[in-house]
Amino acid sequence: HGTSRINEAGRLEIGGCDTVELANRFGTPLYIMDEALIRQKSREYIEAFRKTGMRFQVAYASKAFCVMAMCRLAAEEGLSLDVVSDGELLTAMRAGFPPERIHFHGNNKSPDEIAMGIDAGIGCFVADNFVELEMLDAIAAEKGAVVKVLLRITPGIEVHTHEFITTGQEDSKFGFDLGSGAAMKAVEIAAGKANLELLGVHSHIGSQIFEMEGFRAAAEKVAKFASEARDKLNVVFPVINMGGGFGIRYVEGDTPLQVEEYVRVLTDAIKNEFASAQYPMPEVWIEPGRSLVGDAGWTLYTIGTQKEIPGVNKYVAVDGGMSDNIRPALYGAQHEAMLANRANDLPEEKVTIAGKACESGDKLIFDLMLPKAQPGDILAVSCTGAYSFAMSSNYNRIRRPAVVFVADGQADLVVKRESHDHMLANDVLPERFQVKG
Ligand code: LLP
């Protein structure tokens, strides 16, 4: 997929770059991002919205993969940006991302984060709960500012995805729930605050979703809620933000929706609700994360040791694992993989790809058909662009890999491999622990 292909040397090539050369040049594990594919996905969303004739914003949910180069790319493609912490906001600002297109999310923003967002002049805050509404208003008042807010509402929609990544159901840590009346109460409060400008509502029902019905039902509920807010409280929402969640294909059997249809379903639900209304059609915003960067990402590993338990299993170990991709261990996520240096070799045996962390659960792929692997072979795991680097850790004090963007035969480092010094930089040896000379 994307720009990946097998080249004349029988090796995996991405963005016109030979992956074995990339492994030699930058070392492994290595994240590779297919820049052209990210741009293509961005344009698909924007094109789909253009066709609807609605006003819109496509905000990249930066949590999926937040580094300065990605923020630049998002800015170049005309995307907006969803951030959820001071760290993501700072990354965007340092990358020169236009602040007015940044939306600040999160269920527990600190006063410092709110102040930082206001000072930066971001486009809006997505307010999550009553405590935050008070905080936003108070901090805005202190600064003599009026801040734009969306209210995150929980529409009570259940979708079939991993329970850790569903968010739309009533019992969620996020948002004002519709059922109990909290959402309408929030509209009333927000609309009455002198230092808040209520922009509209937001809803996000979960991630890696393949069901159009979930998206449609959520959009209908949110649109209906907007009508009710107008009828009951005379509050008009200029913006409806339908969140992210568009699922991608990791393995055979995954059945992603079509972007164009997805956008049409969301916008139609909103158009229908507002068709007869005497006030302007709201802008529709969405927040794709995974679907912009997920399948653009690959991870290259060097194969090391192997262990066979005859008749039971064969483990092939790589030089990374759960420290650079926690998703298989955390969500039971699945990936495909191939030998990048022998891409034409036929699969011969079924193996389990094990990571190098001291933890039994550190397995990246089960039942993978591979040619007989040798130490030094390069394993390329696909679809690791979203929530892999972003969720990476130093578990076992394994250093985080480098990230490289590839396009048109050019490879550029966008995140350096973590050095030993960097990893140790925040360790402190108190005086009483110091070795006496
Ligand atoms: N908007 C909001 C408010 C969100 O909470 C999220 C994801 C998104 C947008 C983007 O969703 P996406 O388009 O990427 O599905 N770590 C998990 C996924 C967690 C998603 C959290 N929120 C994973 O690796 O599967």
Automatic annotation (TrEMBL):
The active site is at C358 (proton donor). Residues 38-293 form the Orn/DAP/Arg decarboxylase 2 N-terminal domain. It comes from the Bacteria. Keywords: Amino-acid biosynthesis, Decarboxylase, Lyase, Lysine biosynthesis, Pyridoxal phosphate. GO terms for molecular function: diaminopimelate decarboxylase activity; pyridoxal phosphate binding. InterPro entries: Ala_racemase/Decarboxylase_C, DAP_deCOOHase_LysA, De-COase2_N, Orn/DAP/Arg_de-COase, PLP-binding_barrel. Pathway: Amino-acid biosynthesis; L-lysine biosynthesis via DAP pathway; L-lysine from DL-2,6-diaminopimelate: step 1/1. Gene3D superfamilies: Alanine racemase (3.20.20.10), Lyase, Ornithine Decarboxylase, Chain A, domain 1 (2.40.37.10). The keyword Lyase applies. Pfam families: Orn_Arg_deC_N. The keyword Amino-acid biosynthesis applies. Its EC number is 4.1.1.20. Its cofactor is pyridoxal 5'-phosphate. GO terms for biological process: lysine biosynthetic process via diaminopimelate. It catalyses: meso-2,6-diaminopimelate + H(+) = L-lysine + CO2. Substrate binds at R290, R327, Y331, E359, Y387. Pyridoxal 5'-phosphate binds at G245, E287, P288, G289, R290, Y387. The modification N6-(pyridoxal phosphate)lysine is found at K63. Belongs to the Orn/Lys/Arg decarboxylase class-II family. LysA subfamily. Specifically catalyzes the decarboxylation of meso-diaminopimelate (meso-DAP) to L-lysine. Homodimer. This is Diaminopimelate decarboxylase.
